[in-house]
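During the reporting period, our protein records have gained a structure token line. One record among many is quoted in full directly below:
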Amino acid sequence: MQQKNTYFYAIGLSYKKADAEIRGHFSLDDASKVKVLEQAKANGIESLIVTSTCNRTEIFGFAEHPFQLIQLLCDNTKGTVEEFRKVAYIYKSNEAVTHMFRVGSGLDSQILGDFEIISQLKKSAVLSKKYQLLNPFIERLINSVIQASKRIKNETEISSGATSVSYASVHYIMNRFENVADHNILLFGTGKIGRNTCENLVKHTKNEHITLINRTKDKAEAVAGKFNLIVKDYTDLQEEINAADILIVATGAQNPTVDKYLIQSKKDLLILDLSIPKNVNENVLDLDNVSLIHLDDLSLMTDETLEKRKLQIPLAETIIDEVQAEFNKWLNTRKFAPTIKALKHKLLDFKTAELETQRKKISDFNEEQAEVISNNIIQKITNHFAHHLKDETISTTDSLELIQKVFQLEKTNHV
């Protein structure tokens, strides 16, 4: 199933310990993710998936030591190993499995019940499969996490009520301005958060002065067409910023795209930076008329919706426990199958040698009868061992090692 002496690890960093700047150092765009996979393949890593969102960057994979995965991340981002160590987490084996369940089920999200990450996990699995880096273990695990997340969505109210970064942005704007409909709003960047924010702006503010700008104009036009908004060229960015009362930046650039030199207007300007890495240079705060709010600030604005969601956590955890127990059952069967098979072969070797000895000793040796009896005994012995290994109260790993030692079987791999 895995290479010899490899273990399943989850390594990464998230909003819990890493601020937006540090998360930006470790963020991976699509091209960087491919580089990670190519390097992993070249390094002989058998299976892994890579995810990177505004809230977290993680690698789940098999390695002899977690540093192999950390190195892959640091080699393909601006982040250093020293930085990673300060804010990172490393989970091994069953803890890594549990972590993926919690992440995929929205329990570890910056905004509780945000299921955005599950689509990222699906995409990551598809990409790893394309590079032949998705073994049966991770594929089955991803499918189990998807199943748990679907059940939590359907059977709990953990994602009920409107609360997301995009909603929090609009909520913040509406609290800050009395008549939002009378203010000029510029949305720069039309990625997923940008699109969702746009939708919430239209729905909640009834503002008809919303302008969109995107580096690729046709993407902005596609979003604007849906909501009947104004689209301007990227070359008009400075002019539009100076006409705006509210600027929402949701681009996917690796470096800041907005700084104080773009702002010549003396009127008050509220900037919301919804990007990771940060896309607004903090030097805008040198200007007295500018206020800057970042995605992390918005995520701290919990409301009664989030408090209600917290009440759903125990039910969500029960669902995870059920689905994870099914996964572990599958895993244990898969884990001990090679040992049971090797044990059966070893017993068959004993049988062959013993029948050969008895054949020479006994003149009227009943070959057929001896074959039936010995095969039945072998089946009973292997069934007993299999039954023992299925017992959830015992350590399968310890039992496997003992069986392998006693019968001098070749060792199988670890999860």
About this structure: The chain has a mean pLDDT of 86. Residues 313-361 form the longest helix (49 residues). The beta strands are 7-14, 48-52, 56-63, 89-92, 185-188, 210-213, 230-231, 246-249, 269-273, 290-294.
